């Protein structure tokens, strides 16, 4: 249920950004959520819809772009993307020495404002 | 119109966590965020750790629970400063909750502060509260499949305490699998096997904690 806290923070940041730039209404909010971030998109949507009432984002839709877990191997230098939420070894050479490059994102990337 | 933004969703929390950190650093405090599922032994580990540190370190505790003061009462018996946060339903502590109790503890008189998070193997790993390190407990009654089922907490923690090892004879538990999977998720995680009931292994954890907090 930590999606409620995340939706709260997301609304807070978006509303502040909208107001700071001199706009009064948010039409949509686009976010990038890493698959390894521990956030369930469905739960975040549910929390967002429940909490947006009475804010500048009252009529806003939340667009969630999921970011897969990707990385590169320090042994065979191959870049990889996996469907799981974690990487235990390089999918190409099974080396356990690798660097994770994406999958933990929790970012706001774009607001549609009026 | 479209407005490009580049901010982290949890910016608000992280800003407050930074404020907390400044307050802790200003007081010369080392802060441990202690996390685990409910009943893994967070309060028992704290009791053992506080007893082991008696005379060596001045310890304070922030207790996080959805409701109730049972844990704070247990810690208070050891005569260390403790403050209880009741989240009223929230499944984790966040930076703002910690910020709101900073004045309730004599920070300048302490060396080490433990923040006992709400029992939950998922959400607490997501929220920084201003700690130096995160430490987690996995009790062996929870099963050896937990690192791969709850990877985030294992990835975020500097140390993994495997508790209740006195129950090994009664369980089909693969200790090697816990170690292997935890280390695969987080190669630098430090692993300790302890029994808070018998006290076995607690000294090694305390020694590491003292070393880490002094370095």
Please render the helix and strand layout as text.
The complex is a heterodimer of chains A (about 110) and B (about 220).
Chain A: H1 3-20, E1 26-34, H2 41-51, E2 61-67, E3 69-73, E4 79-82, E5 98-102, E6 106-113
Parallel strand pairs in A: 1-2
Antiparallel strand pairs in A: 1-6, 3-4, 3-5
Helix pairs in contact in A: 1-2
Chain B: E1 2-8, H1 11-26, E2 30-36, H2 42-52, E3 59-65, H3 70-76, E4 82-86, H4 95-99, E5 112-116, E6 133-139, H5 146-149, H6 151-156, E7 159-163, H7 175-185, E8 190-193, H8 202-214
Parallel strand pairs in B: 2-5, 2-6, 3-4, 3-5, 6-7, 7-8
Describe this structure in words.
Chain A is α+β, with helices and mostly antiparallel strands. Helices cover 25% and strands 33% of the residues of chain A. Chain A has two helices and six strands. In chain A, helix 1 crosses helix 2. Chain A is elongated. Chain B is globular, with a radius of gyration of 17 Å. Chain B has a seven-stranded parallel beta sheet with strand order 4-3-5-2-6-7-8. By secondary structure, chain B is an alpha/beta fold. Chain B has helices at residues 11-26, 42-52, 70-76, 95-99, 146-149, 151-156, 175-185, 202-214, and strands at residues 2-8, 30-36, 59-65, 82-86, 112-116, 133-139, 159-163, 190-193. In chain B, strand 7 (159-163), helix 7 and strand 8 (190-193) form a beta-alpha-beta unit. Chains A and B meet through helix 1 and strand 6 of A and strand 1, helix 1, helix 6 and helix 7 of B. Strand 6 of chain A pairs antiparallel with strand 1 (2-8) of chain B, so a sheet runs across the interface.
The N- to C-terminal Cα distance of chain A equals: 31 Å
Poorly predicted parts of chain B: none
Number of strands of chain A: 6
Largest interface, with counts of residues having CB < 8 Å to the other chain, equals:
A-B, 33 and 30 residues
What helical percentage do the residues of chain A reach?
25-40%
Strand composition percent of chain B: 15-25%
Tally of alpha and pi helices of chain A: 2
What strand order characterises the main sheet of chain A?
2-1-6
The topology string of helices and strands of chain A comes to HEHEEEEE
Percent helix range of chain B: 25-40%
Name the structural class of chain B: alpha/beta
């Amino acid at each position: 249920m930590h999606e409620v806290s995340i939706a709260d923070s997301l609304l807070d940041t978006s509303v502040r950004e909208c107001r700071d730039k001199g706009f009064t209404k948010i039409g949509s909010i686009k976010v990038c959520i890493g698959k390894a971030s521990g956030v369930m998109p469905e739960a975040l949507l549910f929390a967002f819809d429940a909490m947006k009432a009475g804010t500048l984002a009252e009529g806003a839709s939340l667009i969630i772009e999921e970011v897969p877990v990707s990385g590169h191997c320090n042994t065979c230098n191959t870049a990889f993307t996996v469907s799981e939420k974690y990487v235990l070894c390089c999918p190409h050479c099974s080396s356990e020495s690798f660097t994770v490059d994406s999958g933990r994102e929790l970012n706001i990337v774009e607001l549609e404002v009026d | 119109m479209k407005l490009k933004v580049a901010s982290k969703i949890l910016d608000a929390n992280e800003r407050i966590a930074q404020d907390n950190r400044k307050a802790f650093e200003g007081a010369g405090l080392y802060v441990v965020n202690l996390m685990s599922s409910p009943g893994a032994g967070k309060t028992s580990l704290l009791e053992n750790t506080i007893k082991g540190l008696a005379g060596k370190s001045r310890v304070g505790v922030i207790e996080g629970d959805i409701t109730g003061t049972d844990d704070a009462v247990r810690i208070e018996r050891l005569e260390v400063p403790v403050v209880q946060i009741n989240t009223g339903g929230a499944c984790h502590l966040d930076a703002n909750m910690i910020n709101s109790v900073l004045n309730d503890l004599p920070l300048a008189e302490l060396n080490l502060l433990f923040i006992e998070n709400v029992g939950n193997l998922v959400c607490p790993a997501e929220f920084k509260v201003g700690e130096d390190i995160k430490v987690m407990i996995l009790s062996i009654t929870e099963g050896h499949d937990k690192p791969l089922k709850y990877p985030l907490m294992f990835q975020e923690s500097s140390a993994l305490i495997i508790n209740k090892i006195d129950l090994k004879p009664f369980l089909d538990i693969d200790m090697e699998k816990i170690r292997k999977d935890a280390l695969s998720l987080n190669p630098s995680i430090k692993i300790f096997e302890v029994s808070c009931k018998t006290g076995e292994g607690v000294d090694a954890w305390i020694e590491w904690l003292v070393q880490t907090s002094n370095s």
